[in-house]
Design goal:
heterodimer, A: 321 residues, mainly alpha, ABC transporter involved in vitamin B12 uptake, BtuC, 2 strands, B: 241 residues, alpha/beta, Rossmann fold, four-stranded antiparallel beta sheet, 10 helices, 10 strands, globular
Chain lengths: 321, 241
């Protein structure tokens, strides 16, 4: 336990001083994006990993958060940073609606309903041009020139998201969420109001995802429906971050975010310019292979199977020597 | 005062009458057995009492108040606990976590819930298994865990659905002991059971049903000698002898 705390403090200090040492905007940008995915992945993990309600539609909450910030800034003229609060709030409203409709279904049917929900809201955002500007997208002016401010905002957001989820999972709510995941009928016969607690989990999850969306609006200064409501780049990515890192572990999504953003970037830049250009087209295939690998060998993700990974590495080492 | 009154309970699945006009009651501090051949509607009756299924007609009163239309979790809060015939352990939680989760039914802090859970596990002889994952328990342990979990919700009435099925003779005696111990701390029990050794030794009264209808009612001895019951279990020839 002590060792873990020490490790966390070192890691925290490392990320605190990282942008002060590494001045490259590119690497700062990468870490900012990783922090953002830590938030989305952790939120997804709360709902899917701990509560067992696998969502294929987290783009709904990400997009609603981003659009709330964007629309407030362009139509009402208030700072897009207010969107961090309102984005989370409107995302929860979206979550309430999604829960109202989709929690009538269980298991894979719930997952499919959220998948459909994500596509529906993407089409609405594309076509409701008077509100969202449609495919033209929303452009705002960035508040800060340097990346440092964004870096620390994302850092605080990621840390608080992980910490809040950690607190929740240690409380009564945590026990209830996991009970619902393990057996919904047993949970309700033990006095757990399953529909209430599923909705609570969904609301917390959508709040943080919405905040991440609003942060994305502020940081990238441009959004359109194809980006923030994307099935591929948001909903599926959230699932991959969770699965690769480790479902139902506190640190899993953080590790998953690191691996997935790293992998995505490696392919996007054609292995940092070392490989031929066409390889950047293969990133979807690489994701697929990674998922197959993780499911076959690390069913609980990197964090969930960490002891297994360590064991295998130590077993291989002596035989090589 | 009757703790639980089931009045003219009827549950139809389409055209199939799973439970047809069944009435019985459980007095405070009593153990009432519910018996019947496979498919006679015993578990359906349980599912109606804790409102897993909406009832087709009839009434169920708990402490003289109708519980029809309440949600399953509200039934639990009222004081009716149940176990499942097909055990439903919260597999990837430890035994202690399983019971702690249900103890939150009556208390709010982690500490209180854990203390209560440990107390119940001690009561059910599961304390030494508390850190094992629920899925690693053998069937006898799982049945015990079912009981422990529902006890942690502090019920006044416990519905036990075949808690002795699949146990070996030694485990069976332990199960009977446990059920008696539960009665002794003042919890009324409605028990469904196929194993006659269990049901005949512990029940104060027995209610027998077949094809969803009441066929006999009374003390264990009366019910065991009732021709309709013998016919339902062993066929007509045995009944006429």
């Amino acid at each position: 336990m002590k060792k873990n705390h020490l490790f966390m403090i070192i890691l925290g200090i490392f990320f605190l001083i990282f942008p002060l040492v590494i001045h490259s905007h590119y690497y700062q940008h990468l870490v900012i994006i990783i922090f953002m995915w830590v938030v989305i992945g952790s939120s997804w993990n709360l709902l899917a990993g701990y509560t067992g309600q696998v969502s294929f539609g987290h783009a709904i909450f990400f997009g609603v958060g981003a659009y709330t910030a964007g629309i407030f800034a362009t139509k009402l003229g208030i700072s897009a940073w207010w969107g961090m609060v309102f984005g989370g709030f409107f995302s929860m409203l979206a979550g309430l609606f999604v829960g109202w409709v989709c929690f009538r279904l269980r298991g894979p049917y719930f997952a499919l309903a959220t998948l459909a929900g994500g596509e529906i809201i993407r089409l609405i955002a594309t076509n409701w041009e008077s509100l969202t500007e449609g495919m033209v997208g929303i452009l705002i002016i960035q508040t800060f020139k340097s990346k440092l401010s964004y870096y620390y905002i994302a850092f605080v957001l990621a840390i608080s998201c992980i910490y809040v989820i950690h607190l929740i999972m240690k409380s009564k709510w945590g026990y209830y969420f996991v009970s619902i995941r393990e057996d919904e009928d047993a949970a309700s016969s033990l006095g757990i109001n399953t529909s209430l607690y599923k909705n609570i989990s969904l609301l917390v999850s959508s709040f943080f995802t919405g905040m991440a969306g609003a942060f994305y609006m502020n940081y990238m200064a441009f959004i359109d429906p194809e980006v923030v409501f994307s099935l591929h780049y948001v909903s599926i990515m959230a699932i991959l971050v969770g699965i690769v890192g480790g479902v139902a572990t506190i640190w899993g999504p953080a590790v998953g975010a690191f691996v997935m953003v790293g992998l995505q970037e490696t392919f996007r830049s054609s292995f940092f310019g070392l490989a031929p250009k066409w390889i950047s087209q293969a990133h979807a295939m690489a994701f697929g292979l990674l998922v197959i690998f993780v499911i076959m060998f690390l069913a609980n993700g990197i964090v969930g199977d960490w002891s297994k990974i360590k064991r295998n590495i130590f077993r291989i080492k002596p035989s090589n020597a | 005062m009757p703790l639980l009154e089931v009045k003219n309970l009827t549950k139809a699945f389409g055209g199939l009458m799973a439970v047809d006009d069944v009435s019985f009651h459980v007095e405070d501090g009593e153990i009432v057995g519910l018996i019947g051949p496979n498919g006679s509607g015993k578990t359906t009756t349980f599912n109606c009492i804790n409102q897993f299924f909406p009832v087709t007609s009839g009434n169920i009163l708990f402490k003289r108040k109708s519980i029809i239309g309440l949600k399953t979790h509200q039934i639990c809060h009222l004081g009716i606990g149940r176990t499942f015939q097909v055990v439903k352990p919260l597999a990837r939680m430890t035994v202690l976590e399983n019971v702690t989760a249900s103890a939150f039914c009556r208390v709010n802090t982690i500490k209180e819930a854990k203390d209560e859970a440990l107390r119940v596990l001690e009561f059910c002889n599961l304390a030494d298994q508390k850190d094992k994952l629920a899925k690693s328990l053998p069937i006898a342990g799982r049945k015990r865990l079912e009981i422990a979990r529902s006890l942690a919700t502090k019920p006044e009435l416990l519905l036990l659905d075949e808690t002795a099925a699949g146990l070996n003779p030694g485990e069976l005696d332990e199960a009977i002991e446990l059920i008696k111990k539960i009665r002794d701390i003042g919890i009324s029990i409605l028990i469904v059971e196929h194993i006659m050794k269990v049901i005949m030794t512990i029940s104060d009264r027995i209610h027998a049903i077949n094809f969803g209808q009441t066929i006999a009612e009374g003390s264990p001895r009366e019910v065991a000698n009732n021709p309709a019951v013998i016919e339902a279990y062993l066929g007509e020839q045995h009944a006429s002898r």
